[in-house]
Amino acid sequence: MTQAVSEEERLLEFLYAAPVGLVEFEMAGEIAMINPHAMKHLLPLAGGHGASNLFAMLDSYAPEMRNMLERFDAPRGTVCEGQRIIVDLDRQNDRDDSKVLACTIVKLDPARAIACISDVTTQVAQERRLKQAETWFASLLNDVKGYAVLSVTSSGAVDSVNASWERQTGSVPSAVIGQTLAEIFPPVPAEGGLAMGEQLRIAKRDGWHLEEGWHYRSDGSRYWSQRLLAARMRDDSELIGYTLVLRDVRRQSRDVDDLRRLLTRDHLTGAANRARFQQVLEREQHGWHENGTPLSLIMIDVDHFKRVNDVYGHPIGDVVLRCFAETIAGALRPADLLARLGGEEFAVILPATDLAGAVEMAETLRGLIAKMRVDTPFGKLGITASFGCSTVEHTHELLPAADAALYIAKRKGRDQVHAAGQTNMAA
Amino acid sequence: MSDEDRDALPFGVIGIDHATVTQIYNRTESQMAGLSPDKVLGTAFFDNVAQCMNNFMVAQRFEDEPELDAIVPFVLTLRMRPTPVQLRLLATAAAPLRFILIER
User: Which alpha helices (DSSP H) does A265-375 contain, by range?
Assistant: First the structure.
């Protein structure tokens, strides 16, 4: 009998000291066993959620994990391998890189699964540096034919292009000469990317700026491109223009492209994830401090979404969330950003928008969602959502203020918009 | 306080030195965690026994705050089960040991 006790103790000691997180859980996320290393990473994420459910703890940072497991039909097998979870907890330490966890889930039988969690922050930082280096070296070593080069005046208008431009994009030089970079590279709606003016400003300040994104050829097809924007200076002081090097990286950097999507996107809806949201919100708040540009935020919560899941099942719930995100993203402007912050919780960052503008936008979105119909095997399904708005002119705590306004909109009967600071009198 | 008195306390007592090596591990804690003291004493506490506390919620606080008396609601993984507890973190700059008290 003592033998058995010491065997158990050895096993416990082994699991306590293992430098990797291990969790055994049921399909709904209820934790049966968890080792200290896993708790070290998960507990700080839990926020107000209990620490007894894996999915509840991951809800703010990786709501897609639940969906992945639900969609995995086989009774056993690997559900996901090395799925990356970005966590932005330690903001006060001012580190550039957020922490990145890798999570692998293996289904043991129809009722149980195990998750293995490890910290891959260092590897991700190395990958990023490698990618930057690869871009530079490739531009030095490769045959220069693959690079479209545009010469740009100090005011941002193109004054010449090389022959590769036409080969890569299908557009003749005369079509772009005289155009501004902002016209040639329009921002993609709802991506929250940097405006071209901002990119030029950074290139002027730092000497160069590297950007990635879809570029559209003249025939409407698109390819993933890297754009290196370099400032040309006379005697290091006077700006005489820019050079923009455009490169088709579809084939070489497939994995980098995927990685970037994995790191910034919510797997289910394609909306930005929480880490990307925090990054853009901080950038925009900084802009408000620097030059007083207004900034507003809308928090959105799908009304009675739990009921949708309970009545129709999670797969239909997923379809509803996808349609919801598509509808919202389709109505936003290029600089706005839609992010998924939790199960059925979304947020929209509205740069250069005051509170009245945010309320107007929220009303538009509310109407679109109320009209939206989702096809299900049980017929057409309609939903509503509640909206809370806040603006940086009233508070620096945009998120809590919008959250509080959302709570009031819910309490007043849902399917409506409430703005922070508005009186709570029912209409 | 003697070891016997400490063993009789109804809550877990862990004492670590400034290099985070475990110097005190009372009986209550040992029984709860399922580890005998000789497995724990003399080892790096946050690496071998309590990795779950090796983050900004506990370990970092001992690093950052030489004078510390705080109660932290926490979840431990005793015998691999999530277990909600209250931690009390105690440190003073002059004392050779810092203490973590665990109440379930």
Answer: 274-291, 305-312, 314-331, 355-371
